[in-house]
Amino acid sequence: MRGEFQGNRERKRQERLPVGFLSGPSRGQNQEPKSWHLTPDTWSLVPALGFTLLELLIVMVLLGVLSAVAYPSIGRGMATLRLRTASREIAAAIRLARSKALREQQTYYLQFDMQRGEIKLSSEDLNYQRSLSLPEGVVFRSVALLGEENGPDSMERVYYYAPNGLGENIQVMIANDHGRQMRITQSSMISSPKIEEEPSNKP
User: Would you say 149 and 168 are in contact if contact means Cβ atoms under 8 Å apart?
Assistant: First the structure.
């Protein structure tokens, strides 16, 4: 009775197994795995690796087109960034000249070299001297007293700040090679230089 019961249970277990399960190696047998050999008939079944020359050429052409489209925008963005940075540095130089003249009770001079694109800050006794160069692609368009169109005929413009903190009211116009312009204005009516972006005629 017991053997018959075990036999019925074994048959039910085998019926629940998936098809083909019993076709594998029996318990206790050592069966080596089948090895696959490439033959000329099976070469076409192996997936090809790498890229073809045509695919590489298409990728290179797409990269060239994207670079040609994006480069002008990147160039304009960098030129605008350099222009704004230069305007902030000029405003900082004006503030420094005014504050040092007031604090040290001596006259400070701001010299603008139009040709070289440089600003020189110096004290009256020449113990303090500092220079600032405009970044590449940025030039002086004009440096003059407030209300004037152009400054002196010379390429060097010099303005002062007195020991009482007062100085000449000046306006500095700088531009980049993409046509954008920034105006820095120092007036006795305002405590800090004013920076404004001028409208550009170029897109």
Answer: no
Structure confidence by residue, pLDDT tens digits, 167-200: 899 999 999 988 899 999 998 877 789 999 887 6
Question: Judging by DSSP bridges, how do beta strands 138-145 and 156-161 pair with one another?
Answer: unpaired
pLDDT digits (tens, 9 = 90+) for 77-132: 788 899 999 999 999 999 999 999 999 999 999 999 999 999 999 999 999 999 99
In sequence order, what E strands does the chain have? Answer: 108-113, 118-123, 129-133, 138-145, 156-161, 170-176, 181-186, 194-198
Q: How far apart are CA 7 and CA 16, in angstroms?
A: 15
Q: What are the tokens at 154?
A: 């010379």
Which residue, 97, 153, 157, is CA-closest to 121? 97
Task: Supply 121's token pair.
Answer: 């800050």
User: What's the CA angle centered on 137, arms 135 and 143, to 5 degrees?
Assistant: 75
| Spatial contact of 109 and 122, defined as CB atoms under 8 Å apart | yes
List the beta bridge partners of residue 143. Answer: 172
- The pTM for the full model equals 0.63
What are residue 70's DSSP bridge partners? Answer: none
Query: 182: closest CA among 170, 167, 197?
Result: 197
Q: From edge to edge, which strands make up the β-sheet containing 108-113?
A: 129-133, 118-123, 108-113, 156-161
